[in-house]
Amino acid sequence: MEFKQQYGCYRHVASGKVREIYEHEFEGTLALVATDRVSAFDKQLGVKIPDKGRILTAISTEMFTLAETMWGMPTAFKWGSLIPENQGGLYIEGDLEDEFAGADRLVPPELEGRVTVMNKLEMLNVECIVRGHISGSAWKLYEQGQREICGVPLPEGLKNGSKLPKPIFTPTTKAPVGQHDENITFGEMVEIIDDRSIADEVFCLCMEMFECAYAHLSKLGIILADTKFELGLDDMGNVRFGDELLTPDSSRYWDAATFVPGEEPLSFDKQIIRNYLAGCKVRGEDVSVLPGTIIRQTRERYIQLYEIVTGYPWPSWLR
């Protein structure tokens, strides 16, 4: 799937591991186009999961909408272009045609269901991770005998996946593409941001957002084990959530009905890929191809999460 350097007034300014980023020439907005690319262990793999970008856009749009309308959280979100309702999906914003249609008034097919438009932020140079359960890299450190992460003490007796007594904030550096993020303490985050009041606000907003999302998803039978937030400052200096929000690319989602601490949970994210890579004892840069079964299983888990979070069945024409 190829993307152009310009769509209407939006010109291409950057490529992320998963998203292509476009900036409006006049309005101060960004268009994030979610591709089907896959990243794991901070690396972009040479494979794609069909329709992954559409699923990420739909879930992120749902979460941003909830965050603003139900949870009262400040975000940079403006609108998201989803799978059209008349094609069995959610809905589609008219702005997509207004902003991105070509001279023939048709929206380029590579954009359909993949565009999120955000107000531009000055992004903070940290990754804000909140953990409600111990898993992933945090569990590896705990298993090695460490009883704190990012300066936060951890209790004895935890198993892989155990729910923590209360959610913890574990920020990391924001490494360039291809390099690994490093755990930092809150004090080190203050130094990076260079403003204690902003750091305090970031902490409070992330913890509140996590607790709201955790409670909401619990009612849907989903455990939000952990998630990564990205925040920035708008042109008035206000802290807002940007990028993506609570997607299976930035979060660990588990099936609550079958979850047992210490056992491999049924996940609705890219853990299938992480497990495969770990089993091969390789990291992302060493893999150009995944087995078809891994791709199909990952896609199906993403679709399941889409259906649970949005309440809509996956369109039959995309099966």
In words, what does this structure look like?
The chain is of the alpha+beta class and 319 residues long. It folds into two domains: 7-121, Phosphorylase Kinase, domain 1 (2-Layer Sandwich); 122-285, D-amino Acid Aminotransferase, Chain A, domain 1, CATH 3.30.470. 29% of the residues lie in helices and 25% in strands. The protein is built from seven helices and 18 strands. The chain has helices at 52-69, 95-100, 136-143, 186-193, 196-218, 271-280, 292-310, and strands at residues 6-7, 10-15, 19-24, 29-34, 37-40, 43-48, 77-80, 115-119, 122-123, 126-133, 148-149, 152-153, 163-169, 172-173, 222-229, 231-233, 239-241, 251-255. The strands form five sheets. It has a six-stranded antiparallel β-sheet with strand order 1-2-3-4-8-7. Strands 10, 13, 14, 15 and 18 form a five-stranded antiparallel β-sheet that branches. It has a three-stranded antiparallel β-sheet with strand order 9-16-17, covered by helices on one side. Helix 1 (52-69) runs parallel beside helix 7, helix 4 packs across helix 5 (196-218) and helix 6 runs antiparallel to helix 7. It is globular. The two termini are 19 Å apart. The model has no long low-confidence stretch (mean pLDDT 89).
Which key phrases capture this entry?
alpha+beta; six-stranded antiparallel beta sheet; D-amino Acid Aminotransferase, Chain A, domain 1; 319 residues; Phosphorylase Kinase, domain 1; 18 strands
